[in-house]
Amino acid sequence: MGLRTACLSIVAFVLMGVVSSTMAHRAPGSLTSIKWNEVSGRTEIIHQLHTHDAELGVGSSLSMIDLSVEDTEGRAHIAIYVEEHFHIKRGEKELHLELIGAELSGSYILVYQEFPGRLPQNILIHDNILRDTFPTQINQVNIEDGDKVHSLIFTKDVGWLSYEFNQPP
Amino acid sequence: MRISSLLATALIIFSGNLTADAIRQTKGDFRDAFRQLDVDLPTANVYRTASGAPGSQYWQQRADYKIKVHLDETRRRISASETITYSNRSPDTLRYIWLQLDQNRFTDNSLERLSETAKDAVGRKTWTEQDKDVLSYSSIARNQLAKDIDYGFEIERVSDATGNELAHTINGTMMRIDLPQPLTSGQVIRFSIDWSFNILLEERADSRGGYEHFSDNDTYIYFLAQWFPRLAAYTDYAGWQHKAFIGRGEFTLEFGNYEVEITVPDDHVVSATGELQNPKQVLNSKQRRRLDSARTKDKPVFIVTKDEALENEKQKSTGSKTWVFKADNVRDFAWASSRKFIWDAMVHKQNDLNNPEVLAMSFYPPEAEPIWSKYSTHAVVHTMAVYSRFSFPYPYPTSQSINTWKRGGMEYPMMTFNGYRPEPFEAEKNDAGEDKPVENAPDETYSRRVKYGLIGVIIHEVGHNYFPMIVNSDERQWTWMDEGLNSFLEYLAELEWEEEFPAYGDNVNVLDSITEYMVSEDQVPIMTNSESLLQFGPNAYTKPTAALIVLRETIMGRELFDFAFREYAQRWKFKRPTPADFFRTMEDASGVDLDWFWRGWFYSTDHVDVALTDLREYKVSTANPDVESALSRKEYATEVPETLAQIRNREEGLKYYLEKHPELADFYNENDRFTPSNKDRNEFTEMLDDLEDWEYQTLMRAVAEDDYIYFMDFENIGGLPTPLPLLITSDDGSEEMIILPAEIWRRDLNKITRLLIRDKAISTVALDPRHETADADFSNNHFPSRIEKSRIELYKHEKDERDLMRDMLRTLRARKAGEDGSIRTVPLKPTR
Fold first, then answer.
1. What is the ipTM of this complex?
2. Which residue among A18, A20, A132 sits closest to B419, beta carbon to beta carbon?
3. Between chains, do B801 and A103 touch, taking CB under 8 Å as contact?
4. B282 in helix, strand or coil?
5. Which domain holds residue B813?
6. Are B755 and B646 members of one domain?
7. Chain A residues within an 8 Å CB radius of B127
8. Tens digits of per-residue pLDDT, B74-86?
9. Which of B605, B637, B660 is the last residue of a domain?
10. Are B440 and B389 contained in the same domain?
């Protein structure tokens, strides 16, 4: 078979402000936790980003050099950015995650999303938060499954990762 | 969770659940979490003692360097030559020696480039990857960079002291030089290397060194690191440490003296490891006067001001100057050069006869102002003051902080490359929408986060001078030994900068922030080789920091911990410790058995989660039926209230049948079921007769004291043994804090019951109320138990904040949609 040449579309956003990565200091990364809340009957998704990464990375992606987590607008931009870069699918169907909001917690900005009810047993996750801006960005997604927590790790060119819940819904 | 059978097998073996070892057996569920560590640590020898100190015949190699380097700014390239004097202080004969060629990491065929796959990055995982055909901008930019220019060392000549060529073989990031004569123990060899390489645009390559380009005014900062062939370490525990450099595991190096001549354009300012030897040749008289004055000042003094730097960066001189630096007893050498540099300095005085004064300095471009002149050099001084108290006086003449990028940091002896700049800077526009001239551009503001980020990164990187620049641990092998210990001291130094320093966030305790990581099934122990770490930051930085804070504040106490930690630093100053040396010294100097702690926190992936599952209250019974019957009656009355029907009958004035026929009353109407019988009384007398004298006295005293007896049940869910700090609140509102030591778990790691005797009734108990053990789940830490609201539920509760955010999200979405063209509005014009 001859070589097939396909047009590969370049993913995500254009590199705007150039951002040097971290060396022997805090490594750039985000942590997302997915937990079922028995009381509210909803699945809670909390994304935790270091504010400095969020300001520089999201600011550079949106060409907003003065993006600040200090004001509501800045936090809202980051929340929408996260919403656009974090997806859960069941098969081919993308699940709608409700964006609740974002707030500061110390050096971190927390972005909140919810899914009404339990997630399906088989899901696909894509977490592209800040990965194109920071080449060494590592995103960890912690999924609470019964009394265990499993992690998916998104780095470099990793695409969709699948997860099957042990504890059926 | 569905996993393939092969992976399932691997996982089961890894988890060790089903295999017998000395800690977990195949029979029963006993887990020996307190098993002594000696059997697993390397056997002590004449080089390293069982107490964790350097042994009687401890040795390490030595490499002294004389280097001449020339920066070709137009080609962004260096060419250099070095003469290395290598002393074989090992007992062994060496037929060849190995050098590190770290720039070769960036060659087209490097191990790092060839071994880069998405799967690799995912690590030891059970997940399937889909939709792999994606290409990111950063990937393609890295490839373009490699296509345009050849990177990596160009080794031009390797020769001996008399100029004869030496045979050498390059293997990736390492080079072997074959010696014509074996180098026996105690012998010294001198040889020379000539080389060049193209400097990388750092932000594209993550290269820890290179150049930064400021496109607005076409200016550059050069910062050179891993820029010369450096001796690989030869050690008593691993022989040659020539594990390839593939990006993460940093550097394992030998100490030595350096003399370095750096030739750069003559309008550049150079900062380098060590002390400047020829100020008369490279500085003007004004700069020399200012530098001398800085040596006496306890506030930063400008050697090059911002105005001078702005003037300087407009030039493009064609002449050159050679800056000469000397540094003694360092393990590496780095330098930075630019015509953009502002330069300030102040003195740090310390109580050390050998080195009473250190010159603290900062170099930064105008874009870094105003925050750098305000905080950088002060942060350098503060770091030395705090770290020295916990280890040893700073032993070098200078300590420098250089702004070479926007974000992150990297450490070298006496030199640190640090990020954080105020934003915005470049974005300033004039009324016509054009860029303003640079002189007027800086928006002299900075955010709170940039301020504390800057102070934090400088403390961290300057702190690395102690670990691993002086306590010279093997970075290629163990990241935690320098990053973990350093992050811990960084935290202490930040807390000493000002009250409420947002070290791990405004109110965020490091012990709370690490738990999300520690609960995951997919992590590796701290004691894992650098390149195999799954989550670098939490594993090697935050988790060891959390561990050491638990040790210092809760398990050992500050006095014992600080003494032992200082002892470790002093024992291994200018030497090369291994993990065992740290573990052993901390126990040796404190007299605290910490083997269980190292096993749990450093060798396992368990986490801390203890549940307070039950609290049962008792009183000592007198056993005397005449006393107990009244108590029993009272207790029954409180537990079983009178029936409502009976109360209402009485209230209605109903007359009972018995009242109408009093002759029906008998013994049972006069005595209820609690009234003691003679049989009860006889049994009581017999019981007392059977008691030994001391038992009788004990019972009588306990009855007289009338204490409350409690049985508290704890369940260890996370698996790590942990002390149990308990806040006990009594009925009268008084509070008492007690800490039960971790050894309480030594016979049963799963469930324990603790007896407590108190003279007051307990109303509530809170386990770890000060958040000092890294407990991952506080919802099971209270008696009586509490319902804890989730973070999102609490957020929804804050109505104002939530409403503001909801409105803002709506506004931004609408704006975004409009820009996308999906929503267009018809332009309207008022008609009257």
1. 0.76
2. A20
3. yes
4. helix
5. 799-832
6. yes
7. 152, 161-163
8. 999 999 999 999 9
9. B605
10. yes
